[in-house]
Design a protein that fits this description.
13 helices, 3 domains, two-stranded antiparallel ribbon, globular, alpha+beta
Length: about 350
Amino acid sequence: MAKVEAKEASLTGSLKDFGLAELLQILGQQQKTGILTIQGEKQEAVQILFDKGFIVGTLFPGEKGPETSLAKRLINGGLLSPDNWKKAYEQHQEELISIEQVLLKNELIRREDLSAVLRLLIFETIYNLFKWPRGKFHFTAQEVYFDPTLIEPFNTEYLLLDILRMIDEWPLLVKRLPSFDIIFQKVNPLATLDVLVGTPWEKRRSFQMEVIYELVNGVRTINEIIDQSFIGEFDTCKNLVDLMDAGLIEPIATSAREKKKRPLWGGYLPKGIVYLLCLGWILFLINQVITNRSLSFPANPAEEKMKEMTQTHIAAINKDRITRAREVFVLEEDRLPQDITELVKKRLLPPR
């Protein structure tokens, strides 16, 4: 049984005993107005603002100084420069008005853009709360303030349905995109999403997919695409997987940050062993050919098949070497090589 205590119009308990989904659903159904504080074991506290059962905002009590969650969203997304944010934040402190009002007053950002970012910040914050393994909560009934011209209240029940659907589908996306440091490029840089017309993928074409496809440029990581798309982590990854399955984009490299995290032996030793075994097998076959068959090889269908398999292995090894060389080139030069000769000049591939 959930251990929930009600004291003076407040609600207190543990997420271990009372799930976050149930908690949000109750506050929504009972049309509560107040602040729900979620305190994780290691994470900073997050506050969710309710107005008559609708979610109208999120706050971060642990944030000190100008480096706020809103600042990161605006700056990483390219909507605001760090200098303009710093000036706006200083004015916000001096004049004691909200940072949102300062940004709009100085015309540093369009109202519709700010509204979209605030809405995304609310949604993503609550979505990420479902990833917390443990935590405590405390709800206090009180009046809350929000700007209805900037924030459209979330219907709590609909928001929950969206988040639970995403949580259910997320493991499948993680298998396809194991790291947010992966870099994608367009298979055909000149192609548009019009190529999907008449294919099974046409029904999945959307404005979100257009945005994601436009951001794929062979340099941006998944993390950077998430920041600049403003459609959220889940929808960005889902569209990337769809574009990849439709044959429009392909992974080409992993950013330097991910390379540093990758264990040297754990990452390369298994493939290295496979290549050595293949190379040894190929050398053995060559020796057999020279010794026993010379120019008459292959002399029968079985040997013809063996020859084809050998050529396939050699082609696969060469293709992998080129792919790895190109990844290193992108990391070092921050651009794609024009052709293989550039890889040879950089001594990433042997002369041909």
